[in-house]
Amino acid sequence: MNEIDPKACPVVAKHIKVALVGQPNVGKSMLINSVSNAHLHVGNFSGVTVDKTEVLFDYKDYHFTVVDLPGTYAFTDYTIEERVTHNYLIGQEYDLIINVLDSTNLEKNLQLTSELLTMNKKLIVALNMSDEADNEGININSEYMSELLGIRCVKVSAVTKMGIEELIDGVISTYEEEKTDSKLIFSEAVEEEAAKIVDYLSKHKHEASNSYRNIAINLLKNNKNTYARLHDDPIWTELQPILINASKHIELHHNSDDIKEAFAEEYASFNRGIVAEVVEQKVQEEKVSLTDRIDGLLIHSFWGIPIFLFFMWGLFQLTFEIGAIPMDYIDMFFAWLGETIGSTISNEDMRSLVVDGIIAGVGAVILFVPNIIILFIGIALLESTGYMSRVAFLLDGFFHKFGLHGQSFIPLVTGFGCSIPAYMSARILKNDRDRLLTLFIIGFMSCGARLPVYVLFAGAFFSPEMAGNVLFAIYISGAMLGLLAAKLLKLTAFKGVDEPFVMEMPKYRLPSLKLVYHTVLTKTMMYLKKAGTFIAAASMLIWFLSNYPHNTALEESFTSKIENAQSEDERVTQENLLAEALLEQSYLGTIGKFSEPIFTPLGFDWKMSVALQTGLAAKEVVVSTLGVLYALGGDVDEENKSLVNAISKNISFASAVAFIVVIMIYLPCLAASIVFTREAGHIKYFFYLFMFTSITAYIMAFLAYNITKMIV
Amino acid sequence: MKTLLDCHKACMVKVIKLNAKDDLKQRLISFGIMKESLIEVLEHAPAKSTIEIRVGKMRIALRAQEAKLIEVEKI
């Protein structure tokens, strides 16, 4: 036999597969971060881990696979995320569960724990946020708690990294030891009935992997899976009457006709008992907590919304103002790069490909990195501080009028960053109709990739002082249009009853700099990566399409005119005319000319039409296409090279407004469209979205063009 | 019959009964809103369309329609 290193070999090595479970906002993702140093995105609102994430790491002689499951308040299927967690826990193979709890709110968190206790799985409890609990004067006796629950409870803090090693060691010990039965104790009525069932099961030597007691409890609380398993067993006929009697007894005891409610009360009183035993709360003088004070201002019934609007306005001002500072340097850098590299390439076609194609296209996109970074920082702060839920609270009444759910706000705001995570975070909406409706209007929230187009046009037509306001206006009017579209869809396609709005408002937390940094870094790198690969390739393609086929006859006819030019001015004019004529007869020109009639009523020339079409691949490509097209044609004046100037010279104000309107409304990029289709569940929804956005965009742009023309 | 919606700001009440349907009831229960639990009303959104309450240490936002389904008594 070959010698095998036990740890390196995936077959021989010891694997521990851990399912990480907890209620939302208990710092699960943060905990997994400190355990494995993985760079996950962590947020302070329900719905960050929208799908399960797997993290791998090694510790001592073990390979760990940690599956981070979406937060769930209870063992129910209320939202899609909870369904993901629930299905994973009952259907998948794993070795044990780490249940993460928020130490500052133990009683509520134990609700999930006590439900997990009746599962046939090994369990370990991580009492997270211990540092925060200390500050609040809460002391948890974790040894006593372990004893009372019959499972390991370890105090940890994801922030200070306290107890992380103890937790992993605990996981290993739990893994190596035999499973112990939990010590969940119910009221006399339940215990009595459970004992009867256990007796019955042992009398008939029923074969099961779970303990008889757990089976009995699950039967009593109407657990569907347990029922399904026993239903086909011959003992079922005898078991059924026992269960009916038992339910009656328990319901009577609880003075309720709902067995689930009765069990919820059972769990709650067990949890209260645990908390009373293990938690020592140092008496603090009744002081108003920081969250109370901040909430008093931020969700004030009068000031709340103006404050929120002010924040958003400030964000867009910063995006433009601070973002503009490095832009000149980036612009200069690419101009320099183009010249330097261009001078080393002798072949005319190659030079043009590199300078006018790749450098002009990629440069146009990279120019907007500072703006993107600021926008992403803003959204990351909004997410991680807990303010997002407050805004959902403030806006629910308003949103409701448009047929939307207050919680739709979270995916919608995420949509300002990028539509892809926005589509995914729409899963927090329980109802399929609400979710689809939200999915349909996420595109109206202009994503980060559209920002370059807006910045470009705002810069071209407005003074720097006004540009920030224009940007804000574009975003707000996009959002307003989205609301109207929602109302329209709600009245027609998505008719139905309203879903309840019940949402946790998490504590305010200071955003961790590290986390904001990681989130922004990851997103910015994604943007840059896209610029380097996808956009560069697209720029090359567009360059090719706009340079070929060569028309030597046309070139020759101009050569003599240029040579015979009387003055410098005339020579430049003739050169420009040549470039323009060459561009028009290129492949791209042909495509543009072909589709031009469709766009003429909106005031677009063929270059803009082409830019819109390439924008279907990605919105950044709109800018790079314009960059390539205007670098080649028209304006070749040395001092006046920038794209902003080219645009303000070549495009009328009314056309520009109509162009912005189309960009605002029409289909998001290819990648987002794929995610949309996946989240909506059927390809037909993609076609609906395509039709809906295209028609809306066309009509709105037509109106915008003609109205602007009348006013200006 | 008094419901949570009838409560003023800063008012403390005890839950008597949940009149919600199964799904919503489970949700409320998982948020700690069940018989005997104590609720403090913290804030009303404009036009009282949404209210913010505190149950235990948790802050929860509820829409008026849902608040109406929670029967309470003053303590």
Write a compact overview of the structure shown.
The complex is a heterodimer of chains A (712) and B (75). Chain A is 64% helix and 7% strand.
The whole-number mean of residue pLDDT values of chain B reads 87
User: Distance between termini of chain B?
Assistant: 15 Å
Number of DSSP helical runs of chain A: 31
- What profile does the largest beta sheet of chain B have? 5 strands, antiparallel
Low-confidence stretches of chain B: none
Strand order of the largest sheet of chain A: 2-3-1-4-5-7
Classify the helix fraction of chain A into a percent range: 55-70%
| Tally of alpha and pi helices of chain B | 2
Which labels suit this protein?
heterodimer; A: 6-stranded mixed sheet; 31 helices; 7% strand; disordered N terminus; B: 75 residues; alpha+beta; 5-stranded antiparallel sheet; 5 strands; 17% helix; globular
Explained architecture:
- The complex is a heterodimer of chains A (712) and B (75).
- Chain A has 712 residues and is α/β, with parallel strands linked by helices.
- Chain A has helices at 28-36, 80-91, 106-116, 130-135, 142-149, 164-176, 188-203, 212-220, 224-231, 236-254, 259-278, 290-298, 304-344, 348-366, 369-385, 387-401, 409-417, 419-425, 432-442, 451-461, 464-491, 513-547, 552-563, 568-584, 587-599, 606-614, 620-632, 643-650, 653-665, 670-680, 683-711; strands at 14-22, 53-59, 62-68, 96-102, 122-128, 138-140, 152-155, 279-281, 502-505.
- Chain A has a six-stranded mixed sheet, sandwiched between helices.
- Chain B is built from two helices and five strands, in the order E-H-E-E-E-H-E.
- Chain B has helices at residues 22-30, 64-67; strands spanning 12-18, 38-44, 50-55, 58-63, 70-74.
- Chain B has a five-stranded antiparallel sheet with strand order 4-3-2-1-5.
- In chain B, strand 3 and strand 4 form a beta hairpin.
- The mean pLDDT of chain B is 87.
- The chains are: A alpha/beta (712), B alpha+beta (75).
- Chains A and B meet through helix 3, helix 11, helix 12, helix 16 and strand 9 of A and helix 1, strand 2 and strand 4 of B.
